[in-house]
Design goal:
- It contains 1 helix and 4 strands; from the N terminus they run αββββ.
- It has one domain.
- The chain is globular, with a radius of gyration of 13 Å.
- Strand 1 and strand 2 form a beta hairpin.
- A 4-stranded antiparallel sheet has the order 1-2-3-4, covered by helices on one side.
- It is an alpha+beta fold and 79 residues long.
């Protein structure tokens, strides 16, 4: 995963985290390729909201995009 794509996904996730989104999927595009991320709460930090972001690869299968959840490209923990 490209560093700029990773920064872009984390910045997008931070935006939704700050808006109070919880347990959501979202996509960000970089250089014509989509990356999906999932915002998670860490169980012991329920009051702090979202703290964890998993970024997944997306593959194009039969002209449709599918998230490959078997491979996590990056994990980010918000402080």
């Amino acid at each position: 995963m490209d560093k700029l794509a990773k920064r872009k996904a984390i910045a997008s996730a931070r935006y939704f985290k700050n808006k109070g989104e919880i347990d959501m999927w979202h996509s960000v595009w970089h250089d014509g390729k989509p990356y999906d991320y999932h915002l998670y709460r860490i169980p012991y930090d329920e009051e702090d909201g979202v703290r964890l972001v998993y970024i997944y690869d997306v593959k194009k299968v039969n002209r449709q995009y599918e998230v490959d959840t078997s491979t996590i490209l990056h994990t980010h923990i918000f402080k």
